Amino acid sequence: MFHRISEAQMSRRGLGRLAVAGAVLGAGKLRAAPIIAPHPTLNFTVVRNSCEIGQHALRFEQSGDDLVVHIDARMRVAFGPITFFHYHHQAEERWSGGRFMSLQTQTDNNGDALRVAARRMANGIRIEATNQAPLVLPEDALPLTHWNVAAMSARLFNPQDGKPLREISRRIGIDIVALADGKRVQAMRYSLDGKLPIDDWYDENQVWTALQAKIKDGSVLRYMRAV
């Protein structure tokens, strides 16, 4: 699915755009303003090992300086009529003037019901979540919802359970990434090193393009963007 290429193999235009994106993110803390997708939706096919198990859809609503992102992720691992695992995550993320303002999520994680409510306050980002006391994170904290490349240099929290994340992001380099229809694009890879490794890829327009993660049972989860 992913093939590393050298800078010499890339087009000048693609290299220039990706290099600029990498330079901005590699320069330390940056203003975590979202980069809007060129279309009002982003859709991903979710694959576990070699089997398709679900879809991850994002819908963007822009009104002036305000942005609302609707997220719906559904996964199911089954053998015939028998379901071994099911997952449904819904989120509404709000931004205003390039600043993260709030997040509301609800998740059915194989029967476990989770809710998160995060909102910007005068003293930081207040998070209320299922099964934990409210907490306040620094004002630059962002949810790891993956679509916003600027999150790769931010303090992060888990949008599913509200817990702070200690992942450290590293810019790895440029790969050739396969989309769901087989088309291949150039994309910059970022690795999040933490409890479970996650890689995200962003294309020359800095739009989220792919994800790969190793999950608890040892299998590999991949997101392939639909065109």
Q: How does this model look, in words?
A:
The longest helix has 14 residues, at 12-25. The model is unreliable at 5-31 (pLDDT under 50). This protein has one domain. It starts with a strand and ends with a strand. With 227 residues, it is mainly beta. Helices cover 6% and strands 58% of the residues. The strands form two sheets. It has a 14-stranded antiparallel sheet, with helices on one face. Strands 10-11-12 form a three-stranded mixed sheet, with no helix packed on it. It has one helix at 12-25; strands spanning 2-4, 41-48, 51-63, 66-79, 82-96, 99-109, 112-121, 124-129, 132-137, 142-143, 156-157, 164-165, 168-178, 184-193, 198-203, 208-214, 220-225.
Reconstruct the topology from this structure.
Elements: E1 2-4, H1 12-25, E2 41-48, E3 51-63, E4 66-79, E5 82-96, E6 99-109, E7 112-121, E8 124-129, E9 132-137, E10 142-143, E11 156-157, E12 164-165, E13 168-178, E14 184-193, E15 198-203, E16 208-214, E17 220-225
